[in-house]
From TrEMBL:
This is FAD-dependent oxidoreductase. The keyword Metal-binding applies. The keyword Oxidoreductase applies. Keywords: Iron, Iron-sulfur, Metal-binding, Oxidoreductase. GO terms for molecular function: iron-sulfur cluster binding; metal ion binding; oxidoreductase activity. InterPro entries: HdrA-like (IPR039650). Signal peptide: none annotated.
Length: 159
């Protein structure tokens, strides 16, 4: 729903640009190979880049657990957009920044969101990419900053 409704979260922390990449069991395989129908067919649904909330990167059940990769807290539909390498790499950057703040302030991941979000935002804006020609992944899309809703920069593309 958040992707369809273009919901912008105050704790936007990394962007994803991959399509909604959903895989389904192939009906032909199901009839020929009932034990292994999941030679999948896929449907790519084009979406515009969107920012993913920091809250997806820590466990709601285990106080001191960060996650970065295909195990983050998203629905199976959203996982189709965030599971690719560039996006998971950016997750790792954000988790590293947040972990440094956890250590600095002696707090758990949830309290970074609740008490230190502006400081995390500042770290994300600086980024970790070198400035000598290697892209800064937190600011890779200068026309679509993560602190503004998608509609702000889509206007130039949708006529």
């Amino acid at each position: 729903d958040d992707i369809d409704k273009n919901v912008f979260h105050e704790d936007a922390s990394f962007a994803t640009t991959w399509s909604l990449d959903l895989h389904f069991p192939d009906s032909t395989n199901a009839s020929h190979f009932p034990a292994a129908p999941f030679k999948a067919e896929t449907e790519h649904i084009h979406i515009y880049p969107y920012a993913v909330p920091y809250r997806c990167l820590y466990s709601r059940n285990i106080d001191n657990l960060f996650m970065a990769g295909r195990n983050i807290s998203v629905t199976h539909v959203a996982l189709g957009t965030v599971r690719v390498m560039r996006t998971t790499g950016m997750m790792g950057e954000v988790v590293g920044m947040a972990a440094s703040l956890c250590k600095k302030h002696q707090v758990l991941p949830r309290l970074i969101y609740q008490q230190h979000l502006p400081e995390l935002r500042s770290l994300m804006q600086k980024g970790v990419g070198r400035k000598n020609g290697i892209p800064d992944n937190q600011n890779f899309n200068r026309q679509a900053p993560l602190d503004r809703p998608r509609t702000f920069y889509l206007q130039q593309y949708v006529k």
